[in-house]
Amino acid sequence: MCTPVRRTYSAAMTGSANEHDSARIDPSVPTPSHELGNRFGGRFGDPANDGSGGPARDRTTPAGTDPIDAVDAPSSLTSLTRGAESPDNPGAGTDLTKESESYTHGHHESVLRSHRRRTAANSAAFLLPHLLSDMTLLDVGCGPGTVTVDFAERLTQGSVVGVDASDDVLESARGLADAHGTKNISFEHANAYELPFEDDSFDVVFAHQLLQHLSDPVAALREMRRVAKPGGFVAVRDADYEAMTWYPESAELTEWNMLYHEVTHTYGFEPDAGRRLASWVRDAGFDPATIEPGASVWCYATPDDRTWWGGLWAERCTESNFAVQAKDSALADDVALEQLAQGWREWAAAPDGWFAVLNGEVLARA
Ligand SMILES: C[S@@+](CC[C@H](N)C(=O)[O-])C[C@H]1O[C@@H](n2cnc3c(N)ncnc32)[C@H](O)[C@@H]1O
């Protein structure tokens, strides 16, 4: 029986650097970016640098020209090979034209079970009043496509394209569209940093729960703006992990939330994306007068919802890419992850269990 690598809950609450250090079993593993300052461009280390990546790029300038790497790069290498920014190597941390970033959740069945519940109504309500039936819409990071197909069924005279960096989820999305008999839709493999479309192509460019998984969300937003028609909509929505709240109190869920932050920061991503969306959109060069920030909440409290949400997170703690990355980073081991999974199962079984996911939203004009 091995000893859990994960530090204890009470120690975790104090969050000192020494505790992080003592939790590591191998000094060669990646150091969490919030301890590294500027390693990933300073987004997490330097409060004065919000990771905007500099001034907005002209909307007619093509995105980066690096070749696209294989999407299935080994997860444990990706954030490290991106290269540390340094005075001799400025911008290395923002060489993000490749698909080398490792999507934290991966596409384990427990992850897809979460995404498949999503509809345009429960995930894009802020955009729906602006849709006209003949519009063209691009869904960036469409995943298994449930929201994308829903859009296509609403845009009866228009058309929808879903893009994602994972061929597996694209297959799943195509299967869903076929099962629905949806004709005005297509799915393509694409990298959010290098969308394979001409400037000014779409009336609406949408991304749901994508920007939190990108190490340069501002660059992706510039690219979304490039392919949107002038005056067209760019709409983004992302969860904010720090703002998630639940009942009853659970040491394991608190620990899970902290671990999630540490893992995503280690890989250069921002889990508290919701609160930052408006700032990122502004930094991407959108006219501030057109930016409409907002928020909305998913809430899971019925027995069915608790079984679904608690069950899928229990599985994600031990089976998904999140578990792999937590272990690769030496932030947790199997025993600790199983404890977190058990916490999720206990929360799901609590008759008064309640969980709220705060999502930031922004609607802006290209
Ligand atoms: C949390 S899922 C959201 C899926 C879908 N939008 C939804 O809400 O159901 C994020 C998706 O973004 C995709 N993704 C991650 N990085 C990407 C990139 N650089 N370019 C395109 N897609 C990417 C992942 O493969 C994943 O399917």
Question: Could you explain how this protein is built, in words?
Answer:
With 366 residues, the protein is an alpha/beta fold. It has a single domain, classed as Vaccinia Virus protein VP39 (Rossmann fold), CATH 3.40.50.150. Helix content is 36%, strand content 16%. It contains 14 helices and 8 strands. Strands 1, 2, 3, 4, 5, 6, 7 and 8 form an 8-stranded mixed β-sheet that branches. Helix 7 links the parallel strand 1 and strand 2. Helix 10 packs across helix 14 and helix 12 packs across helix 13. About 25% of the residues have low confidence. The site of S-adenosylmethionine has 22 residues, from loops.
Helix and strand arrangement:
Blueprint: H1 9-14, H2 17-23, H3 33-36, H4 75-81, H5 109-115, H6 120-123, E1 136-140, H7 146-154, E2 159-164, H8 167-180, E3 185-189, E4 202-208, H9 217-227, E5 228-239, E6 245-247, H10 251-266, H11 277-283, E7 292-300, H12 303-319, H13 321-328, H14 334-349, E8 354-365
Parallel strand pairs: 1-2, 1-4, 2-3, 4-5
Antiparallel strand pairs: 5-8, 6-8, 7-8
Helix pairs in contact: 5-12, 10-14, 12-13, 12-14
The structure holds S-adenosylmethionine.
List keywords for this structure.
36% helix; 16% strand; alpha/beta; 366 residues; binds S-adenosylmethionine
Q: Please tell me how large the radius of gyration is.
A: 20 Å
* Helix and strand element order: HHHHHHEHEHEEHEEHHEHHHE
Looking at the structure, the CATH topology is Rossmann fold
CATH architecture level-2 label: 3-Layer(aba) Sandwich
Bound small molecules, deduplicated: S-adenosylmethionine
Largest sheet: 8 strands, mixed
What share of the residues does DSSP label as strand, in percent? 15-25%
Number of strand segments: 8
Q: Low-confidence segments, ≥5 residues, pLDDT <50?
A: 7-96
Overall shape: it is globular
Structural class: alpha/beta
